[in-house]
TrEMBL record:
The keyword Oxidoreductase applies. It comes from the Eukaryota. It comes from Columba livia. SMART domains: P4Hc. The lineage of its organism: Eukaryota, Metazoa, Chordata, Craniata, Vertebrata. GO terms for molecular function: dioxygenase activity; iron ion binding; L-ascorbic acid binding; oxidoreductase activity, acting on paired donors, with incorporation or reduction of molecular oxygen. Its cofactor is L-ascorbate. This is 2-oxoglutarate and iron-dependent oxygenase domain containing 2. Keywords: Dioxygenase, Iron, Metal-binding, Oxidoreductase, Vitamin C.
Length: 319
């Protein structure tokens, strides 16, 4: 039997249900494999990005560069309101749908035409022989948008120019006005691939989740408590996808996706990060982050140089 001795790892695994030596060893092997996977991840991603940029033949080159014409007119109206001098939360809530008291909001984001062209481009990529990474540790199908080269020309301007004025009003306490990096990917569910997604919280201060299509039934999202504020009996709400519309929610809001019953579901996910917030406390391990250097945005942490100017973008090595 495993005894809850002084080893914090043993204690943590015991608290999560490991009872016998065999269970403990299996869990330990899985953890070691996951640590190795994460260490390799950055290098592999840089290599894939280079190959894709050199060899991939885009089908819809226009979708790589964000244009106002991709955005729903009502979304542009919301952004206009949020950037007006007397905008406030109360005024913004007249334009967008709110769900319970969980600070989850739905708003139009893209045009239907853009969603169709975007999914068609992603299918073209999927069917190509290019190297592909997994969106995250839970989704096995989908596309990492930075590897496609979409960060600089699409996701960063979307975050800075359009989403940040909105999140500044909705989530001021989570760094909504200073979301300074992101991880963006598209998740895909179909009957012979992933069907659903288990309950989790995101490595993000604020998440945008946009339904891109195609045709599917079921597959609703469900949301429980905010992870820093769990209730003794969690209350879940279910939210349907509305094509070309996005949900904004706190990254720490516990959520998951129910299984689809038919068709294919593609959603754009943008995990947005505020270095100001997470430099103080890593949202994944709830500790002061211990940083290791990373490529690109890393996990959205920053380290200041002598002049106190944030420069490197780092990973928390603890979680
Ligand atoms: O399936 C979805 O639409 C949600 C995906 C999600 O929550 C995530 O990837 O973090
Ligand atoms: Fe998520």
């Amino acid at each position: 039997m495993v005894h809850p001795g002084a080893d914090p790892l043993q204690r943590a695994l015991r608290e999560r249900g490991c009872r016998s030596d065999r269970e403990f060893e299996t869990a330990l092997r899985e953890i070691e494999a996951e640590v190795q996977r994460r260490k390799q991840l950055i290098h592999q991603s840089v290599e894939r990005k280079a190959v894709i940029s050199k060899c991939y033949k885009q089908k819809h080159p226009e979708v790589y560069v964000l244009q106002d014409s991709f955005l729903a007119p009502d979304f542009l109206e919301i952004v206009r309101y949020c950037t007006s001098p007397d905008a406030d939360l109360h005024g913004l809530l007249r334009y967008i749908e709110s769900f319970s008291d969980k600070r989850i909001y739905r708003l139009p984001v893209f045009t239907e035409e853009f969603c169709q062209a975007f999914v068609d481009e992603l299918e073209n990529f999927e069917q190509s022989d290019m190297p592909k990474g997994r969106p995250n540790s839970m989704n096995n199908y989908g596309v990492l948008l930075n590897e496609l080269g979409m960060d600089e020309t699409f996701i960063t301007p979307l975050r800075e120019k359009y989403l940040r004025p909105i999140t500044a009003l909705l989530y001021p306490d989570l760094g909504g006005s200073c979301l300074d990096s992101h991880k963006a990917f598209v998740v895909k569910y179909s009957l012979h691939e992933d069907l659903d997604l288990s309950s989790h919280y995101d490595n993000a201060e604020v998440t945008l989740n946009v339904s891109l299509g195609k045709d599917f039934t079921e597959g609703n999202l469900y949301f429980g408590d905010f992870n820093q504020d769990p209730a003794p009996v969690p209350k879940y709400i279910e939210i349907e996808h509305v094509g070309a519309h996005g949900l904004l929610h706190r990254g720490g809001q516990i959520h998951g996706a129910l299984p689809i019953a038919s068709g294919e579901r593609w959603n754009l996910i943008v995990w947005m990060r505020s270095s100001t917030i997470r430099n103080q406390l890593c949202p994944m391990c709830n500790k002061k982050p211990e940083l290791v250097e990373a490529e690109g945005f890393g996990d959205g942490f920053t380290e200041s140089n002598e002049d106190d100017v944030p420069e490197t973008v780092d990973l928390c090595s603890l979680w």
